[in-house]
Amino acid sequence: MPNLLKFGPTVSLFAGALALSACASKAPKELPPEPGPATNTNTGAGSLGAVPGSQADFVQLMQGSDTIYFNTDRYDIDSSDQVALAKQAQWLARYPSKRATIEGHADERGTREYNLALGERRANAAKNYLVSLGIDASRLSTISYGKERPVALGSNEQAWAQNRRAVTVTID
Amino acid sequence: MKTAAIALLLASASFLGSPALAQVESSSPTVAAEPMVEETDPDGGLSVTVSDENEWQDLGIAITNFATDADVSTQTNAGSTAQLGRAISGVIASDLRNNGLFKPSGPSGLPDVPYPAVQSPDYPVWSSRSADMLVQGYVRAGAGGTLTVGCYLYDVALKQQLVKGGWQFGASDWRRAAHKCSDLIYSRLSGESPFFDSRIAYIAETGPKDRRMKRLAVMDSDGANHKYLTSGQATALTPRYSPDYQQILYLSYLNGQPSIYVYDLATDTQKLIARNTNPTFAPRWSPDGRWILYSMATGGNTDIYKISANGGSAQRLTDTPGIDIGGSFSPDGTRIVFESDRSGSQQIYVMNADGSNQRRISFFGGRSATPEWSPRGDQIAFTHIAGDLRIAVMRPDGGGFRYLTDAWQDEAPTWSPNGRIVQFFRTQRNSGETTIWQVDLTGRNERKLPTPVGASDPAWGPIRP
Predict the structure, then answer these.
(1) Is the pLDDT of residue B53 over 80?
(2) What is the mean pLDDT of residues B184-196?
(3) Residue B44 pLDDT
(4) Which among A34, A43, B107, B352 could disulfide-bond with B356, CB atoms 3.0 to 4.6 Å apart, if both were Cys?
(5) Is 3.40.50.150 the CATH number for A2-27+52-171?
């Protein structure tokens, strides 16, 4: 994965070897939540009381890496997406009986039907990358919400960047 | 053309038992047995086309309250026959006024026409009021709650009847009689095909932007007779009325995955059109209702498929990498205009109905999406994306590009049955509130449709049978 060599300006190191978070211009998202007091993922125990292997555990441990972001009309997995997906893959590898759905989304500045197909394409790009990291394809499903479920409600570049996303949701 | 359709209806006895509007044999207060819709003066009167709109737009059309032979109660929500006559005249005046094509006067403020004068207008009175055209009519109650409406258009200067029509209908269909009269007047004066007596399927939207409820809904072309068809529990999108108004294709998240269903209006039941685990989008009917187009994503790659409306196996029409989606048949059913990003961005392509001979037709910068072939065949309406989303039209050969609207976000055009008006939906910046609008081909007459809540994805059906 040569792309991993292209680190962004800030690098945070977490427990996992692949848990690198690179800053990218395409994702001016909100800052991830402050790291919890005891996020020792090597224990296998979930942080803050979440049941290990649960979706709540996944969300807490991902610290925002459950979501990857895309440029306008694009669906390529860039280096920062790879870092996030590697972190997801680690978790999925730790809980091999868990399944996950990847939700693909688009921003509001496109036509409704095309955005449904675009969201599906983004979700599939994320799925294919997880599969390339060794996650069994049968554990992963995709669903597109097009532009129908924004998380950022404004009509500006920053909001649109947050809405062009693929979110991995594990199934409890 | 219209007369043929009506003759067919007359030939069938089934209309007697049906709630649908029936053309009646007798159109006049006095007994008369003659064809119902006729051009009483085919050579005289006006012979203008929509391109000369200024000529007929300035016509003074007086629309009078429809008279009745006996003011009796009806089962309509309008009241007695006299009240119904006033309501029908009001609908006709609204139809003609709201579409920006005419500037009618009345019915309020105009003298009442006594029932016996419906067929013998007092021309000097209307001449002195500077009316060029005069609309009169009547309402009569019949047996079993049926109602009969007669509609007459007169040329005041020529002192001549230009056209007349009559319809028998059940109480709940009274607005259709008004729309039929509007269509008669519009067609006679403009030379265009009718469009008022038609319905629209759309998506009703309520709630905040991130938790918006989207329900399948239907309404008349003027927004009346509104009805929700789904509860909103599952998000519904992109409906399309079948040409016979019996079914609606639409997308629903009912089973989790977005899938195309066909909703049967008579039974209020629905079924999947393609039973598989892949998501399906963008349903479309062929003009004859025999074929359905849908788009299906497989591994992130979306292609267009064609399947018989009766089921069977689907035929894949596109196979390029990328998103091929949508599709709208030419009126003769031989070609399909569709959207593809195979070139790197959304553009518009045309292919034969079997998928052969695919070629791009949009070459004017920006992105082009959601093409819809006009029922007249001469234009393709689409969404043009260059920063803002705007409604535009072009010829089927890709020439003649021009914008019809200029707003922050207008998308998803649908044609009026006669191909003269385009409806679309407009999204408000930030709030994301949606409304349905329509604009005529001049781009000048734009107006918002009245809907009870937010509204998107309009799909205009054909003129009603």
Answers:
(1) no
(2) 95
(3) 37
(4) B352
(5) no
Shortest Cα–Cα distance, A145 to chain B (Å):
8
What is the CA A10 to chain-centroid distance, rounded? 18
* pTM of the predicted protein model: 0.85
Mutate: best of B325, B424, B431, partner A, most A CBs <10 A = B325
Q: Do B281 and A116 touch (CB under 8 A)?
A: yes
Do B323 and A154 lie within an 8 Å CB cutoff?
Answer: no
Tell me, what's the ipTM? 0.88
In this prediction, residue B23 carries a pLDDT of 67
Give residues with Cβ within 8 angstroms of B286, minimum separation 6: B292, B293, B329, B333, B353
Which residues of chain A make contact with B457, given a CB cutoff of 8 A?
A: 112
B143 pLDDT band (50/70/90 cuts)?
A: confident
CB B167 within 8 A of CB B176: yes
Enumerate domains of chain B plus CATH numbers: 2-190 (3.40.50.10070), 199-460 (2.120.10.30)
Q: Which chain A residues have a beta carbon less than 8 Å from that of B370? A: 111, 113-114
In the three-class reduction of DSSP (H, G, I as helix; E, B as strand; rest coil), residue B376 is classed as coil
Give the Cα separation of A118 and A75 in Å (integer). 8
Residue A37: pLDDT band with limits 50, 70, 90 = very low
Facing residues of B394 across strands?
A: B380
* Band of residue A36 on the pLDDT scale cut at 50, 70, 90: very low
pLDDT of residue B274: 83
Report CB contact under 8 Å: B300, A155. no
Residue ranges covered by each domain of chain A: 2-27+52-171
How far apart are the two ends of chain B, measured CA to CA in Å? 12
Compute the distance between CA of residue B249 and CA of residue B264 in angstroms, rounded to an integer: 9
Do residues B397 and B378 lie in contact, with contact meaning Cβ atoms separated by under 8 Å? no
pLDDT, one tens digit per residue, over B147-159 is 999 999 999 999 9
The stretches of B112-220 forming alpha helices (DSSP H) are 123-128, 174-190
Residues of A in contact with B412 (CB under 8 A): 111-112
Residues from A in contact with B at Cβ < 8 Å: 73, 75, 108-114, 116-118, 120-125, 128, 142-144, 148-151, 153-155
Chain A interface, mutation test: which of B203, B205, B210, B295, most A Cβ atoms within 10 Å?
B210
Percentages (nearest 5) of helix, strand, coil residues in chain A = 40, 15, 45
- Position B100 scores a pLDDT of 75
pLDDT of residue B102: 84
- Show residues of chain B in contact with A132, CB under 8 Å: none
Q: Which residues of A touch B318 (CB under 8 A)?
A: none
